[in-house]
Amino acid sequence: MRVERIRRVLENLERMGLEQMVVTDAVSILYLTDIWVDAGERLVALYLNRSGKHCLFVNHMFTLPQDPGIEVVRFSDTDPYIGMLGARVDSGKVLGVDKNMPSRFLLPLMDQGSGAGFVNGSLAVDEARGIKDQAEQEAMGRVSAINDQAMEQFRGLLKEGVTERQVAGQMKEIYQSLGADDLSFPPSVCFGANGAVGHYRCGDVALKPGDCVLMDVGCRKDHYCADMTRTFFFGKVEKEEHRRVYELVLAANRAAEAMIRPGVRFCDIDRAARSIIEEAGYGSCFTHRLGHFIGMEVHDYGDVSSANQACAQAGQIFSIEPGIYLEGEMGVRIEDLVLVTEDGCRLLNSYSKELEIL
Amino acid sequence: MRVERIRRVLENLERMGLEQMVVTDAVSILYLTDIWVDAGERLVALYLNRSGKHCLFVNHMFTLPQDPGIEVVRFSDTDPYIGMLGARVDSGKVLGVDKNMPSRFLLPLMDQGSGAGFVNGSLAVDEARGIKDQAEQEAMGRVSAINDQAMEQFRGLLKEGVTERQVAGQMKEIYQSLGADDLSFPPSVCFGANGAVGHYRCGDVALKPGDCVLMDVGCRKDHYCADMTRTFFFGKVEKEEHRRVYELVLAANRAAEAMIRPGVRFCDIDRAARSIIEEAGYGSCFTHRLGHFIGMEVHDYGDVSSANQACAQAGQIFSIEPGIYLEGEMGVRIEDLVLVTEDGCRLLNSYSKELEIL
């Protein structure tokens, strides 16, 4: 059990007026207990109560550490496990449930009246996870340093005629050779016009001079995720507009990063980057939010967007990733991970962002 | 839109007394529309109504085919998309919701009163998905044939001193060289005592004579999943008991497969295998259900277990995977995929199951 992390969750629950909560997200359970149970379609649930009577529900078929450090209730597929979970809940009080709790567990929990009401309680966990403690900051630094080294090797794979899929296909091995455990998400390797296709991964397109190469890549180590995007020019800059687009995106990236410190609103960080792109007439080509929180998941709760009026706090880690996408032509995105410090911020990626022609 | 598949879902909804349903599972949406949207934490929803006024809700950021073949409602992160979804729902009638619908979408849908009640409606989709049509049966046959070929190559990797991780690490590439798209799940390669550890994947243990080698592996092709387990002896059979255990598991596997035909209860199939193992005194060493349904997901809805009193139907595909696990010593599991035919069943795997000493 991670006592300090659970203490922060309980504090958050108190602020939300909740006495109790059921956490079902495997990553959040790992964060709070150090126990990883990949239960697939089966239930795994961490019941938290401000009284301190916490309890972990795990199917018999999953192995737990010798000393799990928390009371454990075991069940099998044929046991009435929703009833067993309900029996622990204080049915006279509102129950906070995990935002990811699937309806197949939530609806029967409601039907059996296990709670005076049901609300999404995940903010209590998400806000705790949003502020990384010392160990987490170090893990995020380590995995981002691997991503920097890997990007250098990925750049070396960009030769005329190589396909996106061939480049992407070598990444996992490169990451592992650098000490990472795995990819943190399927890499995006986009040549030319594919750089403008939202959520494109890779295909059989071959690299040719004049292509922009957008690589959005990340690895995972010790349960923490890296995420970085760099855009290169291959052979030449095809059009002057492409150079201007690159410099705009870089300026937007730097403007946002320059203003990050505790107390600055996320919508204002988004605005700083977006206004540069808008004023140059490319506002409609920047089709997404500026960034997302990251940690044990590539997309942790929280984002840097026009809709988020919250203020940055020390210990938060998120991406800053402005982009301009010219449909049918090319796309540029430049993405770093940023750690908010007491008096500013620190970039977790140090890979060069200057325009580079390979 | 897959008209015939949707027709079957609507028929199932009618039998369940439901007029309407919201499907949020990306795989089920792919099954019903041929459209794949990997929306991550964002909402993607297929609203089905027996009147035929179906509608797909997709965030602007995801690319759709030119002609999606269904009415599409687009929204952005800052739109009130739960409200937009609710506006389509007939609030005077009960709404079936996807079993996987996360509480962060379900609770606000309930709070805004989008439905006279809310029930898990997934059985309507799951039962349709449980009976594979011709195209699906062929896809499952193709991917299982690749798994057979791959097993032969995996077997060739088993040399003294090789580690589980080294063997597992080569599997994805072997699968892809045989035409598969990807792994269908992280492979399990278990040497010796690791074969008895539930849900073990692989580690740095080196292969030595006398080890049992349990490999539970599968690939994915054209959205369909293979899954097969074979257990080999390396160098020698260490103890006579190990041979007996192998033969028992094989007998259990064959006994179950021999009785599969439409109309046979799943609990009776489970019983046929389990009783052979129990009667030999190893009942407590067979710690899981006999099998699971499989298709677009490795674990589709439905299983072959003592709790399932339903009867097999033609077109269903599931695994038959009895096992005996001797803790601290070894484990044997033999798993095939089986297609129920009009008058019996057909094994999708043809890789030999005879005891083999490598």
Overall description:
The structure is a homodimer of 358-residue chains. By secondary structure, chain A is α+β, with helices and mostly antiparallel strands. Helix content of chain A is 32%, strand content 21%. In chain A, strands 4-3-2-1-5-6 form a 6-stranded mixed sheet. In chain A, strands 7-10-11 form a 3-stranded antiparallel sheet. A 3-stranded antiparallel sheet of chain A has the order 8-9-12. In chain A, helix 1 crosses helix 5 (122-130) and helix 9 packs antiparallel against helix 10 (266-279). Chain A is elongated, with a radius of gyration of 23 Å. The model of chain A has no long low-confidence stretch (mean pLDDT 96).
Give the SSE map.
Two copies of one chain form a homodimer.
Chain A (H helix, E strand, L loop, with lengths): L2 H13 L4 E4 L2 H8 L10 E6 L5 E5 L12 E4 L5 H8 L5 E4 L5 H9 L5 E4 L1 H9 L3 H23 L7 H6 L1 H7 L4 E2 L4 E4 L20 E6 L1 E3 L2 E2 L2 E6 L6 H19 L7 H14 L11 E2 L10 E2 L12 E4 L2 E4 L3 E4 L2 E5 L4 E3 L11
